[in-house]
Amino acid sequence: MWRSLLLRGTTCLLQVATPRFLHQRPFPPLCARLLTQPPLRRTTCGLELRGQGYFLAHSGTRAFKRDAKSSLEPAVSPVTVTDIKLYLRTKEIPFHDGHSCLHTPSIFVEPSARRDSFSLFVDKTTGQFLCKDTLAEGSWEDLQDCLEVMLKEELDFLSPRVMLEYLDSAEEQEEMEWELREVQRIWSSSVPFSDLPEDEAQLIKTMFQITKISNATLKRFGVRLFKPTKSLVFPWFGGPDSSLKGVKLLSAQSTDTDKVIYNEATVPKCNSYYNLFGLPLVGRMDAEVVLTGHELDTLAVSQATGLTSVALPRGVSCLPPILLPYLEQFKRVTLWLGDDIRSWEASKIFSRKLGFRRCSLVRPGEYRPCPAEALAQGKNLAQIIKSSIPAGHKSIMSFKQLRDDVYGELVNREQVAGVKWGRFQELNRILKGHRKGELTIFTGPTGSGKTTFISEFALDLCMQGVNTLWGSFEINNVRLAKIMLTQFAMQRFEENLEQYDYWADKFEELPLYFMTFHGQQNIKTVLDTMQHAVYLYDINHVVIDNLQFMMGQENLSVDKFAVQDHIIGAFRKFATNSSCHVTLIIHPRKEEDDRELQTASIFGSAKASQEADNVLILQEKKLATCPGRRSLQVTKNRFDGDVGIFPLDFLKASLTFATPVKGKHKLRQLAGKPEDELEVKKEVRKEVKKEVKKEVKKEVKKEEVKKEEVKKEKAARTTKTPRTDKKLSESMEK
Ligand SMILES: Nc1ncnc2c1ncn2[C@@H]1O[C@H](COP(=O)(O)OP(=O)(O)OP(=O)(O)O)[C@@H](O)[C@H]1O
């Protein structure tokens, strides 16, 4: 019977057959994380301790295995909550309409053994389901298949093994078992705080700046110390048997400015670490919770207020939908995620997933630091939580409601400007940063290196925690990932294969996802996939390479520019509505070879250029002296109007771009009319002319100095003694 079920639902059930670590996610149906599954097999694994941090490392070689499962096709039609409800009603399955999920009786538990009558949760946005009692999980199609079989066979329930037993490959199993052993090993060799000598416990608390957290609180949450690295160990208990599923190790390093820098490591790896820290302490009847961005914050909230509190596993970077069922019971959720603009933005985005109506947000500010710091400073945490503001927003509001937002933006000017590039300082100077909700249009001549540049541009941001989704329609994901990995490691691997694993492991940790489209695509399918990815992975940046692949052959004869405008408009709307930055690569119109590109080289109409917040052009000027040199020109910057151009050298060995050595080229910044490229170009030309004049003047001066010296020498020779002559010639030689 299960074989027939498997055959019927081959596509969707195969998606469940992915690595899972008890509670891991299967790949989502619409987009796949290309590098989630390591393509190579681990043979020897070990633990390595470096400084204060704890790292997972392995040595030895890996047997190469071609991985065919790394890409998945997008779903044909995404499910809506209305579809789900309709289906459940037609099958006469009772359900509660919850905040983010529909709750139904679990079909994976025998009716007589059901502790909670509604323990199966169906995500209202994706249709993904989770049975909290058995941890069986899968897609909406899986659930439908299971229900159909049950009804047909007149069964009361199904064994959860139906969903759990799509076994992973041998090496994935091996990896899971290895991880499980590591978890046990770390846990059993770490010490509860109550077992530590008082002075040692105090020393550790001082290191982590948690002197006000009592041993009793640490004990309640099961926090221990891993002595070899002086790391705090936060356990992940879960599942029906509340067993140990993973650990997070936190190490602390103090800086010169008395600030503490924290380093985290998790087992299993962070992209499969789904621990809502504090969950075992949640009572079945609890109706209020404080959601924090860090384990230490949860300890502080719980101790200071006695309120139920849980911490997100990956801080403010994401709220994985698989955790939503665990938050369904709460009628009120207070999000107190941190003390910066990023936390504030994240709390607004997460409250969408949780349901606006039950959420209230603690606005970061001088008097509202993060909970652990608030406790350390002796603030009244209960009062801060009480002063949180409702997340639900109205379409019409007064300045009174906006007042604090405006003040927050003024105080945190730097953070509001967005994430800064690590490798492109000039971009920081012109654009100020990479902001959520904006649309960037990027163009450049054919084959000039657009993909290569944007790949590094996006990688740079991704390395700083910007969750990134790539839609590469032109080159396949393997090639793109290869380019990015080369740029990430700043070296090619063809000659250094032994270093591949080290860098691939690091690269795998980046919050980077790839759409599996290739070739011409329908814009609606692409937007649906993007929407889905934003929900699942809290994507902050989508890169589309390139727009021409959404134009559709048949439309080209109609009105090419109208189609282009429509597509740009759709991406604009998506960026705004999803608070997600979209970078769109567009091929320019045909230009004469010797002319530089302008904003007008891209767009069909002025409407489209209005939609973009930023317009970037990769200018290609073939110079005999610097053949690889390009310039990046910003012709539009809605944030503060600054535009400008700067040169870029291409480093073939690492496929990266760099600004030529300082002083040679001066960044020209222009304030004023943002889209006036002619002005920009004039200024640039003036700048170049000035530079050339300066160089020529310098050369002439040098020549004059030389001539003067030669003259002096000659004069000296005729007047001085042979002994002085000798000295002079020696010094000349020197
Ligand atoms: N500045 C550069 N100088 C020389 N070669 C470069 C430079 N930048 C990229 N390349 C190389 O040029 C080739 C094409 O680059 P890429 O695919 O990024 O260009 P593109 O502009 O996206 O192309 P297309 O117009 O086809 O989309 C690649 O092999 C890349 O390594």
TrEMBL record:
Molecular-function GO terms, alphabetical: 5'-3' DNA helicase activity; ATP binding; hydrolase activity; lipid binding; single-stranded DNA binding
Sorted UniProt keywords: ATP-binding, DNA replication, Helicase, Hydrolase, Isomerase, Lipid-binding, Membrane, Mitochondrion, Mitochondrion inner membrane, Mitochondrion nucleoid, Nucleotide-binding, Transit peptide
Protein topology in the membrane: Peripheral membrane protein
Compartments where found: Mitochondrion inner membrane; Mitochondrion matrix, Mitochondrion nucleoid
Keyword Mitochondrion: yes
Main location: mitochondrion
Domain called SF4 helicase: residue spans: 413-664
Reactions catalysed: ATP + H2O = ADP + phosphate + H(+)
Matches recorded under InterPro entries: DNA_helicase_DnaB-like_C, P-loop_NTPase, TOPRIM_DnaG/twinkle, Twinkle-like
EC number: 5.6.2.3
Gene Ontology CC, one term: mitochondrial nucleoid
Region (Disordered): 698-734
A biological process from GO: mitochondrial DNA replication
Role summary: Mitochondrial helicase involved in mtDNA replication and repair. Might have a role in mtDNA repair. Has DNA strand separation activity needed to form a processive replication fork for leading strand synthesis which is catalyzed by the formation of a replisome complex with POLG and mtSDB. Preferentially unwinds DNA substrates with pre-existing 5'-and 3'- single-stranded tails but is also active on a 5'- flap substrate. Can dissociate the invading strand of immobile or mobile D-loop DNA structures irrespective of the single strand polarity of the third strand.
Protein name: Twinkle mtDNA helicase
Organism for this UniProt entry: Liparis tanakae (Tanaka's snailfish)
Gene designation: Peo1
